[in-house]
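Work Package 3 (structural annotation) set out to generate three-dimensional models for the target panel prioritized at the project kickoff. During this period the team completed the workflow that converts sequence records into discrete structure tokens, so that structures can be stored uniformly alongside our sequence database. As a representative example, we reproduce one entry of 293 residues exactly as it appears in the project archive.
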Amino acid sequence: MPEYALSSSEFHLFRDLIYKLTGIVLSDAKRQMVQGRLQKRLRYHKMERFEEYCRLIAKEGENSEELTEFINCLTTNKTDFFREAHHFDFVAESIIPGFIQRASLGEAPRRIRVWHAGCSTGEEPYSLAITLAEALEGHGNWDIRQLASDIDTKVLAHAEQGVYEAEKLAPVPKALLRKHFLRGRDDKSDLFKVKPFLQERIAFRQINLLDKQWPIHSSVKFDMIFCRNVVIYFDKPTQKTLFARFQQYLRPGGHLFIGHSESLLGVSDAFQSLGGTIYRLPEPMEAIRKNAA
């Protein structure tokens, strides 16, 4: 099939639609990217022009399967195991020791709750699951639950399977690879699967961060929220709304992790910066003292 160019009006239609659906902002420089990624939908439907695809999207309307495919095409899913490793080091060295101490004193239950908002193909939640398992080894049984969400249904399916090629696991130390993964046999010897005890701690769910109501009970309070390299694609008003909502779901004293090229400057002053794109939600008395100072 010949490659037809995406017209300016068609690009603007797709750009406005993806913003409405996901909050992702596409500059004019992304026109070539949009054309390239949506070509496969044209090929799938045996279409020759983008205007045909525009009509299909308009005809099928909201909540259609094609709209899901459209979103899947235009979302970015770059991720790696132990990406931005200092975040996982901080969890192991600075957060978990406090959990262990409070639990040993009877001040808090042996329970940890984490949300990965924008988990892509699962490398981040599995990296944290390994980090928690290692840091808590020898400290009794812990109730650990990780919610891993994404808007892209295809990457979620991949994440839930927990199967990765050997090259994707290069950042994982060999000792941890042997301990936490099962290697395939024969013609699948280059594939590794996350062990069941780690998979059981993670629930993968489709969540659109722009939805007015998330499928998370309002009483839930997370100890950590990871939303890394996601809001970089959002405009400032969308970011402000999102972090205000995250604040409601993070327990006082809990931690927020964002991407290395992201910042809360001019977005939210509710969180205390700890450096390295790590933030903490102050306890109520800390916030009162800060405002009084």
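Residues 85-104 form the longest helix (20 residues).
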